[in-house]
Fold:
Amino acid sequence: MTPEINRIYNVNHSRKGKFTMRVDSVTVDWAHGQVVDGTAKAMMNYNVKEAGDPITVRLSHCQFTPIPSE
Structure:
């Protein structure tokens, strides 16, 4: 599934774990956006992303579940 721009998704990433993300842009391989809730884990502490931090994820490593808009 290719995420839509300006939507919020629950993301299950094979390396970063589970977090919520607002998608700002999408390319062939990548989704760019901002962490809305949760923590995107990483091997190195300086790469851990918290709510409000920008994030880029590889589409092939993620499963995106849209959060219904209110």
Q: What stands out?
A: The chain has a mean pLDDT of 95. The CA atoms of residues 14 and 61 lie 5 Å apart. The chain is about 0% helix and 50% strand.
